[in-house]
Amino acid sequence: MPARLHPTALVEDGAVIGDGTAVWDNAHIRAPSRIGADCIVGGKSYIAYGVDIADRVKINAFVYVCYGVSIETGVFVGAGTTFSNEAFPRACTPDLSALQTSDPTEATRTTRVREGASIGARAMIGSDLEIGRFAMVGMGALVTKSVPDFHLVIGQPARSIGYVCRCGQPVLRFSGPPPSMADTACGACGRVYRADGGRVIEIGQAKRSVA
Fold this sequence. Notes:
Layout: E1 4-5, E2 10-11, E3 16-17, E4 22-23, E5 28-29, E6 34-35, E7 40-41, E8 46-47, E9 52-53, E10 58-59, E11 64-65, E12 69-71, E13 76-77, E14 82-83, E15 111-113, E16 118-119, E17 124-125, E18 129-131, E19 136-137, E20 142-143, E21 151-154, E22 159-164, E23 170-173, E24 181-185, E25 191-196, E26 199-205
Parallel strand pairs: 1-4, 2-5, 3-6, 4-7, 5-8, 6-9, 7-10, 8-11, 9-12, 10-13, 12-15, 13-16, 14-17, 15-18, 16-19, 17-20, 19-21
Antiparallel strand pairs: 21-22, 22-23, 24-25, 25-26
């Protein structure tokens, strides 16, 4: 199935949109960004030039994805999420005589969102970091450092408060530093995980007894 582009969407020449992807009203996709197959780009979202988005990514409305961001397969990005790519931005040169360039410079930083991760609505994602595989970022979180695989983070600045399953359900919650965890099955789907000093490892599917 070819991509479906809303009549009000602005897709610049040179942007690549994969088969089955839907781009909704007033979204702006700059070239030479690339969006994979079977994605959704919500209304009024902005995808900057050079952004790389893999397959089956769901981007809700009013999302801002700046240059330097890479999004892997199966990621969810909630409404109003904003990415950034500079730590110390200025509009002008130090003497205020000219605007700073909008092109990438040595100060431009990158961010990667790994496969299966979810980012809640109105989260703010900093630069020079990675959001790990199947991690979950809570609504309104301010992410200033990398999030490990399968971690649940909330707050401003965001901090880990639990481990989550591939299916999205919490496996363990905690209030202090991320603890080690013996083999533990997700109560919703049965997948098994263990943690060693905060590093979460997938063990596999739990063996369920047959009645």
